[in-house]
Amino acid sequence: MSARAGSGPALDFWYEFASTYSFLAAERIEMLAAEAGVAVRWRPFLLGPIFAAQGWSSSPFNLYPAKGRNMWRDFARQAARLGLRVVAPDPFPMNGLTAARIAAALDEAMRPSFSRAVYRAEFLDGRDISQRPNLAPLLRGLGHEPETVFALAASEAVKSRLRAETELAQSLGLYGAPSFVCADGELFWGNDRLEDALAWANGERWALEP
Amino acid sequence: MSARAGSGPALDFWYEFASTYSFLAAERIEMLAAEAGVAVRWRPFLLGPIFAAQGWSSSPFNLYPAKGRNMWRDFARQAARLGLRVVAPDPFPMNGLTAARIAAALDEAMRPSFSRAVYRAEFLDGRDISQRPNLAPLLRGLGHEPETVFALAASEAVKSRLRAETELAQSLGLYGAPSFVCADGELFWGNDRLEDALAWANGERWALEP
Known about the structure:
Two copies of one chain form a homodimer.
Chain A: E1 10-15, H1 20-36, E2 39-44, H2 48-53, H3 60-63, H4 65-81, H5 97-105, H6 111-123, H7 132-141, H8 146-153, H9 156-171, E3 179-182, E4 187-189, H10 194-201
Parallel strand pairs in A: 1-2
Antiparallel strand pairs in A: 1-3, 3-4
Helix pairs in contact in A: 1-6, 1-10, 5-8, 5-9, 7-8
């Protein structure tokens, strides 16, 4: 149900392609996880159905304008700390369905590089990542044959796999992205909790009561 | 409008007595601000009217159960990192109106110790901080005469001061607590951003574009 069992510390990284802070986590997670000796499983999912189930028709950053304004400012500040200059995609949120299906279709080992490329196209270059013509060069740059991947991503098997992942995410208690889930089910929400999640995966419990 | 002008770096700390993460910020801010050489102004306000204005009848942690469940767990983890064992007040959110009026009524120099005492009673001891009999010992312990303070806190002058502070908070773009506002109006939301806010108050801009 969760990250690889029986082979050292592991962490599931649940991400949504429309999510600004998922992008920042995607930029940070590989180096931090390597330092921590934690294996990461990249698990794309869709926030749309989860938001819809709690009555939201769009991103909370659109529904609540003050929250949205500060998110964009904070996103720029946090990105600047990583040496990145971000843009707000138009429209926001981007429809990440096609990208998520592709990520779900790819071998696990290929998922991180593709996902990072999508995020960078979206949040650094302002590209519309809902469009196949914008995804094709990313795939080609990573050595994939775009048409083959598009066909696989559009298959019923992949569609239902992504649907099942999203349902699993919801059943695990996820309500936003990024989220990190440890092998024991411990859930951490948000890019700000990546370090804590890695520590937990490594057995750190601070002085938390059982 | 914002923190003390003309006398070195300063930061406004906006807090709400019902807010779990405001408690954690209240526990952390004095040591961190002292280390950073930043003067802190404690500014109690009410989230209720701001939430109501965006259509929320309660805390988002009640309205969105998955978010609420993870908040309580995260709150316990973050508190444990500070060596604190927290409880969930019942009911949640606590009505912090009386405590906020008292904080607004006290001299600025007396506000931090009173506010910390209220938070500790609420989140460590599970006491109902909406009740004067529970606030009186806290005031007495800090050398105040409770009845005098209660009378002052119930005055029209203090009531309207707190109302004006809440309206100011909303006009500054606040939508949650804790929030930190620098002298130039830069807004940081959440206990997780305290360190960044202090750095900003000290002139740090990372590589952020103008």
